[in-house]
Each structure stands twice: as structure tokens, then as C-alpha cells.
Amino acid sequence: MLNLNTIPIKTAENILRVHSIESFGTHDGPGIRMVIFLQGCKLKCLYCHNPDSIQTTGGEEYHIEELVQMALKMKSYFGKKGGVTVSGGEPLLQAKALIPFFKRLKEEGIHTNIDTNGRILNHFSRELLDDYADLIMLDIKHMTEEGYVALTGQANKEIAFNLAKHREDSGKNMWLRYVLIPGLTNDPKLLHQLGNHFKDYKTIEKIEIQPYHKLGIHKWEALGWEYQLKDARENTEEELQEASEILKTYFKEVRIN
Amino acid sequence: MEVKQFKSGVWTEKVNVRDFVINNITPYHGTHEFLVGPSAKTQKLWDLCKQATQEERDNNGVRSVDTETISTVSAFEAGYIDRDNEVIVGLQTDELLKRTMKPFGGFKVVQKALSEQGVAPNENLTNLFTKYVKTHNDGVFDAYTTEIKKFRSLGFLTGLPDNYARGRVIGDYRRVALYGIDFLINSKKADKEAITGPMTDDVIRLREEVAEQIKSLKEMIELGAKYNLDLARPAQNAQEAVQWTYMAYLAAVKSQDGAAMSLGNVSTFLDIFIENDLKEGIITEQEAQEYIDQFVMKLRMVRHLRMAAYDEIFAGDPTWVTEAIGGMFSDGRSKVTKTSFRFLHTLYNLGPSPEPNITILWSESLPQNFKDYCAKVAIDTSSIQFENDNLMRENRGSDDYGIACCVSYQALGKSIQFFGARTNLAKTLLLAVNGGRCEFTGKQVVEGIPEYTDEYLDFDKVMANFKIAMKEVARVYNDSMNIIHYMHDKYYYEKAQMALIDTNPSINIAYGIAGLSIVADSLSAIKYAKVKPVRNEEGLTVDFKIEGEFPCYGNDDDRVDALAANAVADFNNELKQLPVYKNAEPTMSVLTITSNVSYGKKTGATPDGRAYGVPFAPGANPMHGRDKNGAIASLNSVAKIDYKDSLDGISNTFSIVPKSLGSTEEDRIDNLATTLDGYFSRNAQHLNVNVLDKETLLDAMENPGEYPQLTIRVSGYAVNFVRLTKEQQMEVITRSFHESM
């Protein structure tokens, strides 16, 4: 489907392992975006709606130039706001290959965005964030360590906060995302904690509340994994508004995505 | 002429509405916030209209019909919905939604349509039209060749306007308001004087045509008098400007029942009068909106007498009162005015509606506030369509144009077009694998194509045969069109519209094709997979077995998209070789109306794997469900068809689930406007936009009573969803609704 003649041989440095691609993404960053869901994540969040993107094996290998060419075909629809978002999985696991990819996108004048859990802060991810990512959307999983571990299966939530601090110090734009799960993350105390932690950050343009939904359950079943949040329920409109009201006291823009 | 309040120019001395608009427009760059709701009078009237349309639906689609009168410009006494509340008056007859006989297109059609309502034309009339008066339909069939009749009856040529009126001719209805009819009559008289010998056929014909036009103008004055309006003089204020313009349009739809009778591009013209009255404090915004609401209401009530079979090609009783709104002047200024907004706003004040067929002439340079409002209206109502203003203006030459029917450019008052319906290109392709025989009957349709006996289809051989088939179909198509338009001019000349168009305008003939995506995918299957025809004992292919994968049109894949673009170019080139009546310029469209369902029934299995009977995709759309790479890839494929090869338009219908456009209203508006910019920046020509969930449509099928105004864009026009047949509704539902993953 693409003219591959112009695309060089794939090597470890120029491939991205891709779970799937959405060509008309309107929920992952500003404007209309090509959203590349990368394969592989070290967390295993209980509500993950793309559990088949967790395993680090699998996915389809794309040469970065192949992805650049796809983005160029969509570029006229990006308008002033849109662009390319890498999501996942966890895109920063492939930070090394994302550097030349984002570099190419910037050469083509395309806005870049990373949707991340923020758990990888090495020299590759720093270079990527500092030099090539116009925006990052940092997913704040939980404000307490216990909650974080219970939700993601991994310890040390501070890593993500360190990444947020790094982004703040770089002066470049950031959005926060927060999955709102009744009974697990919607305690007003947690929301106030979240607000207090970030209220002085100048780079945060907005926070997006991601209402919990169960659309991914069948994928868990297909993988033969047990879905542990079976008893959780979706938010009521009131719960969403209540959370939104609290966060509005700390952030200049709050939206329900 | 009272013109002192307006800036003069070329228009003051001779008929030139564009010049008046250019000199007097007040472009508007603000938001929609100035708009007001419907007045009490408007609401009362609209309630009566809604009640009447409900009665119409309850009564099998026809509320009442006249069997006594030949409808002409001045036929019937004045009719009102509720006189005290009408600020813009005028109906086609003396009664709301009454349908009338216009027998000059074809008397048999009138008889058939009436008999379906259990009535018959007045006996004297029947006597006249069966013994003494000849119609367009009679003339055409006198001249048709055996070959044309065969192509027509076997379904290679379809929907030809040989037994109904051709429509498409757009009178410049603004002229009546700006100049008054006396001025127009004098102007036509002067034109006629200047048409002198030697008296060859065309000169004699033109003199006769202008004489007819002058008579029609006089009849328009009579029509006005029935409503106590002095149309002989120019409109003096905004209310009169709207009223005069409507009367001119009414004259057209009283005397003609063309399939599509567009309004043109009146909003910005009317704005000049409205702006003037607002400035002078004569009216308020409430009155300005009231004029437009009531004008639009009247346009929604236009009806023609149609037989049931007509519904197969034009479902949902459309009238195509197409009003083009927006666009840019060639000098770079925007044509958007407050009245552009007021027209769109009728979709809130009166609710969604297929008519008038509101068409936004889109340019990236339009004021952002207007673009956003258009996007909002599309999202909220699924009632409007978008066409590429930059592309049409730059390729066709005028910045003062309307859209005839769905997608066809027409410079207002300067040019007309001859409507040509369409040929079935998918069926033409089947000729290539059947030795030139019809795939159903085995009748020889085209000579010179060798019988195909290979086990697998070979791309080069099929293409060579397909080119022969296209050449032959083009030839017969052209023959039929020349006969049709010769006869239409002779027996059912559009004298009212033509009276409002320059004498001897330029003409383009509007050929069309259907089945483009099937042709592209079939050629792709033959080229990239292995296609094995299954033949019956007569050697006709009844099915195709495909081994392997092939790229489908609609996925932004050049391998197949080029096949689509080339098929359009090839057929257009064949058409361009042929001589046309009145030296019209050949143009072509990729458009199906709703006949994509009936084309499916009339086309056997195709090499792309489509089974016999499966509906075609509408217009230039990819086949349902085959555009798997998302909305943008689908749009990009269609955008590759070169407008220069299809100057009469390339229709694409785009359906998207609201949530997929974004999570907030602001995002949805922004993303739709950006999508339109993106699509049209790739030189695409047209986009119908539906923003709705399939569930809504399914529910409307179950509970039609709850969705009387649910409107959906189908192919260059919109319909009331509940007025489609079940089959057509199902076809709409199986279309690709773009959704996020």
C-alpha cells in the first residue's frame, strides 16, 4: 500500500514495534491526529483497554520512514492543531527509535505528542522529550503508592512524578490524564492531592479526566487473562462533574475526554 | 429605476447582478451570535406546514392533486398557508402541497402518476394530448434509434430525462428583484432585435426562444398581480427583494418540473437589501430572519407530480432547490454575509430538512467563524453539503455561480447545462468479459469485442475490451443526449428560467457515470489477484471466483486509486470526442443519486466479488465496508479523481459517528472544519456530511413517527430518512460509518 522503494532496510535503530494505527484520532491530543499505538508496556493496569499491547513481543514492525510517509498522507487534515501521537503500550520503551522518528516529523512540520505513563527517564527519553516532543500527555495513575501498586502492578510512582518535574523544568507543554474509576481513584481526597501536587506547574495546559469504561474486557478474555475490575462500574454524570469541579480549582482547564 | 441607495456600477446600465453584489456587499466575519429564533408568525405557519406534510405522508406521499389545469406561470389563483401570518407569499397553486400536471414533458407520465392516485386528467386535456399536442417524450421516441432504445432498456443508459423534465437550468432569480420585469423585458427585446440573418436554423431558433422568454416575463407580472405584487418594477426594500426573488423562482417551479431546480446563490444578494433596511432602521433582526425563514419554508413546500417509479432513481421526493452559500470572490474577498448565516439558521428555526439543498461553497479562506458555524450545522442536522469553491472558481471561471442539482457548477445567468443522467460503468465493464453481450439477456450490445474464453481474466485483455465498450457506450449515450435536448428545447423549453439568463448562454452537457468503485475494484482484482469467471452454458459470466488479495479503492492505495482515476479520465475522453447539440461543452460527473440501489439490481455479479443485486456505492464513494484504513484514507482515495476529468462534479458521501469527531462540541466543530480544509486542499470537489449513529437510523426505521424531520445526506442531496423505502434505508445503514478504533 505504500511505495516502499524509497524506504531503506529495517534495522534495530529505525524500526518501531506497532500495535495498531488510528488515522483519524480525535481523542489523543489536540486536533485530528494519526495515533500510533506502540507495542509493549511494563505496567499492567487493571483497566487497560488495550491489554493486547502490553506484551513486549508481538506487534508489527514498521520502518520509521514508512510511518513518516503515512503521516504525510494525513498531514493536510492535521490543520493548525493536529499531528502525530505515539501511545501504547508505553511509547517511551521505544524512545531510542522514536528520536529519529520525531526528528523526521519535525522536519516535515508535524506536531508531535507522546501519551505516556512516564516511567522511563533515561538519556533517550530525555532527548526525545527535550528536543522533539511538542507535547506529552502524562498519565497520573494514582496519588498513593499503595494505590499505584494495586492499579499498575509496579512500585515507585515517584518515577512518573520525576518525569513531570523534568518536563516542567524544560518549559515545554504537558497535559495530565487521570483515569477516573468509581471507588478506586475518584476519592475527593485523592483529587485534591493531585491538584496540590501539580498546581504550581506552569507547563500543564490542561488535565483530562478519562472516564473508566469496560470496552477492553473482551480483549482480556481473549488473552486468557482475568479481568479484575469486573465489579467496578462506570462513572455517573454527577461523579464526573464532581471530579471536574474539584480539579478546576487547581488547573486552568479540565476536560472530560 | 430606484437605485439611489446602492453604489452604482456596470449593473446600473445593463443586467449584471454579480457587479451589483461586488459593489454593495457587506462581508461578515463575526460569529453566529446575532441570530434570532423564529417569529411567532413563522412558528404558526411552520406548524401548519408540519401538519400538512404529516397528512401527505399519511396519504401515501400525496396530499392533493389537481386534474383540471395545465400548470403554467400564471395558472391558479393566489394560494396561502395562513395569509395573516405570511410575510412572504406565494404557492405553486391555490392550496398548500397540491401537485399539478405539467404535461409537456410527457403526457403518459402524467396519466400514470395520476392513476397511481386513483384519478385521471380532465377529458378534454386527455383528448388534446393524445390527439393534437406533442410532448418532449413523444418527440424523443420519434427520433430514438433502435440502438438507443436497446441501451436504455437493458440498463446501460439510465435515468435519462426522456420522459420527465431535464431540470438543472438555473434562472438568475435575483434579476427580478434587482431590475424589475419591465427592465428585463426591454433588455430581451433589444437582444432579439440584434439577432439577425442570415436566418439559419440556430438563428431562427434563438429568435423564437427569446420571444418565448418575453412572453414568460409578461406572465410573471400576471403571477405577481395575483398576490398584489408589482413585479414590473424593482424591489424597494428587503421584504420585496426576498418576495420578488421567490416569485421568480415560483414562476419556474409552476411551469417546469425538472428533476432538479436549483435556486442559485441568492443569500448574499438578498443581504444587501436586508443590510440596507437594517441600517436605515426600517427592520430589525427579527424581521430579517423572518423573511428568510418564511422564504425557506416556501421552498420546502415545493412539490411536483411524480410517478412511483421515479422514486427508484430519485428517492424521497427531492426537488433540489439547491442554494449555494459562501465562497470567495476572485479578488480574494469573502462572499459570506449575515444572510449566509440566516439561511443556515433556518435549520434550527424550522428544524432539519433536505430542502432547500444547502450547499456551502467551501474555501480555506472563508471567515473562520462561518466555517465553524457550517461545521456546527452539519454536525447538528446532517442537512448540508460542502463543495470546493477554490477548485470550481479557478477551473470554471466565475465567482458568481450556483450548484445545479447536487454537484454541478453553473455560472448564474451566464450559462446553463443539459442534464444527462448517467451510464452504468460497471455494466459496461461486464461487456468487456462477455464479448460485448448483456450479462443477463445475452443480447449483443457492442460489436467488436472478442468472446472471452480464458480460464482467468487477463488485465490487459480486459482493459482493451473495456476501452472498446466505453467508446461504444459513449457514442450511443451522446446520440441519446443530443436527441433529448433537441426535443426538450422544442417541446418543453424552460422559458421562465431562460428569461432570467443571458440570451445565448454557454452550455455544458452533463454526462454521468455510476459504479466507479466497482470498476476500480474489479480491475484491481483482475490485476493483483486471480479472477476466474464462472460461465453459464451460453458463455455469459454469472459469477467470479477470486483467488488471492487485491487492494480496494478507498484505502489511499495508488495501485487501485489510479485505476479509478484512469477509468474516469478514459470515459470522459471518449465523450469529449463527440459532437453535441448546440455546441455544448461535454462534461461528466461521478454521481448516482439514490439509484445506486436500483443499479445494483440491474447489474450482474462483478469481478470485484460483488454479488448480483448488491447496491452500488453512491457517487464516487468506495464500496461499503471496503475502505478499511479509516476516514482519511477513504477521503484521500476519492480526492485523487481529477476534477478536470469530471467537471460536472465528483460526489462523496461521508458518514461519521459524532463521538469519533471529538469529545466536546468545540472539538467536533474544529475537527470537521479541519477535515474539510484537508480534503479540499487535495483538490477534492464535494462532500456530503452525515454526523450520526447507526442506532439512530435503526430506531427511525422502527419508529418513523418519531423522526419526521430526520434528514440524511445520500448522494449530492438530502432526504427525509423516513421517506426512503426499507431497502434504501438498509443501504444507507450498511454504508461505512467512520468510527474511531
Automatic annotation (TrEMBL), chain B:
Listed EC numbers: 2.3.1.54
Keyword Cell membrane: no
Start and end residues of each Glycine radical domain: 618-741
PFL domain ranges (all copies): 1-611
Compartments (UniProt record): Cytoplasm
Pfam families cross-referenced by the UniProt entry: Gly_radical, PFL-like
Main localization category: cytoplasm
Family matches, as PROSITE patterns: GLY_RADICAL_1, GLY_RADICAL_2, PFL
Record bears the keyword tRNA processing: no
Pathway: Fermentation; pyruvate fermentation; formate from pyruvate: step 1/1
Origin superkingdom: Bacteria
Modified residues (Glycine radical): G716
Catalytic activity: formate + acetyl-CoA = pyruvate + CoA
Classification via InterPro entries: Auton_GlycylRad_Cofactor, Form_AcTrfase, Form_AcTrfase_GR_CS, Gly_radical, PFL_dom
Membrane-traversing stretches: none
Similarity section: Belongs to the glycyl radical enzyme (GRE) family. PFL subfamily.
Subunit and partners: Homodimer.
PANTHER family: FORMATE ACETYLTRANSFERASE, FORMATE ACETYLTRANSFERASE 1
Protein name: Formate acetyltransferase
